[in-house]
Design brief:
Layout lengths: L6 H24 L4 H9 L4 H12 L1 H24 L2
Length: 86
């Protein structure tokens, strides 16, 4: 199956551990967004996609940046270790 000496397998293995970590960070942050803002957006006539794009994503930018940086650092460190033992 050519799983040895393959970069794609190393990247997928690292993603198995970093994606749940980022998901936990983003979920915890989005739970702190006040539901009143979302309710007001629906009352003003915004659809679900518009609320997600205009409110949730904009308010979650610090959490997205934090999760991205931590995931990058963790993934890069694991990738270097796996290349070391290649």
């Amino acid at each position: 199956m050519r799983l040895i000496h393959n970069y794609l397998i190393a990247i997928l293995g690292i993603a198995v551990f970093t994606i749940p970590f980022a998901t936990i960070i983003l979920r915890a942050y989005t739970q702190t967004i006040p539901s009143g803002l979302i309710d007001v957006a629906f009352i003003d006539g915004a659809g679900l996609l518009r609320v997600f794009r205009s409110i949730i994503i904009l308010l979650s930018n610090p959490a997205i940046a934090t999760a991205s940086i931590l995931t990058l650092v963790m993934g890069w460190g694991d990738f270097l270790v796996s290349l070391l033992f290649k």
